[in-house]
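User: Is it possible to get a 3D structure for a protein together with its bound compound? The compound here is pyridoxal-5'-phosphate. I've pasted both below.
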Amino acid sequence: MAYIVDMRSDTVTKPTKAMKHAMVNSALGDDVFGEDPTVNALESKIAAMLGKPAALFVPSGTMSNLIAIMVHCSKRGSEVIVGDKSHIFKYEQGGAAHVAGCLVTTMENLPDGTFDLEKLEKKFRGSDIHEPITSLVCIENTHNVCGGKVLPQKWQQDLAAICRKRSIPIHVDGARIFNAAEYLNLPMKELVQHCDSISVCFSKSLSCPVGSALVGSVHFIEQARRMRKMVGGGMRQAGVLAACALVALDEVVPQLATDHKRALRLAKVIEGMFLKCFTVDVQTQHTNIVLVRLTDACPARAGDVVQRLAQVSLEETQGDCKTTNDEGVILKSVIFDDRTIRFTLHCQISDEDLWLAIMKITYVFKEIEAKATSNTRVSAV
Ligand SMILES: Cc1ncc(COP(=O)(O)O)c(C=O)c1O
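Assistant: Yes, that's possible. Here is the predicted structure of the complex:
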């Protein structure tokens, strides 16, 4: 059997032993009645960590972002401004329009996950009777499609100053906000000080099976609790899930630095191969996501490379060409676009897994480079 290294996403992580233990042993109650002590403990803890008065445990990051938009944009005809590479815009089924009934306007995301604030100021609408009313700006930290980038604090401060002048709130999709805090070595509350609401995920880098929290003011969370009920996110003995999140805060958060170090090592190895078909930007490698770009010289598309990495050729398991062990290695990754592949590090990738992944990448990338030199079109084996 080939050895599998799964770097598709940090969502593939499974609950740890301590989480399973906590699931069985935590006190439970009906959370829709507000009576689950474990959920209540998690909500208090995460609110305090983020320096906001209240929090709400919800099933997913998508629901958390949707509820935030519904609450901030409760007036009909509201407009929400989001980045064009944001998860909210690209991957949430257009829920902001579909369910919340908002006009979604995009700003071009710059490579660092930010957007141009001068251009943003020109986007705000509402003074003219013909226009919708801009009611919310959403940002993403870390920014997934931009390669796990951490938004600069100064940019957030400038954004907040602009939004405050117009009383427009800021919502952060902080699915990986713990990674951002680790990278900047900042307390979470400092990281989100300029924002009105934050969605954090426990089911990504933190290894929990399910769960996110929406964090904000008491009034905001009261409204959010109503909206959660409406979209079917009211859970009963949800303490079995919240228990994992409480463990994650103590057990997994301190390990994020290791994921970041391993991601940097992977990026440096790829850069150090000096390939003409593949590039990686080590200078802007922040957290646990590594993006590999295919250059114009690359005869393969991202889909071909992802497929090839997930297969084991006969030559790989024989003679001098062996990647690693006799059975070979399957490396799972994802396509971001036709020229971009994403590798995601997480707490269930060990040093040995990383080493095997590097061996596999080296083998496959060199195989593709050889084909580029001989002008052969690449397809999976
Ligand atoms: C940046 C970002 N926001 C939100 C989500 C949505 O989270 P969920 O899958 O829990 O709905 C994801 C999921 O990967 C994400 O990467």
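The domain at 17-251 is CATH 3.40.640.10 (Aspartate Aminotransferase; domain 2). The radius of gyration is 22 Å.
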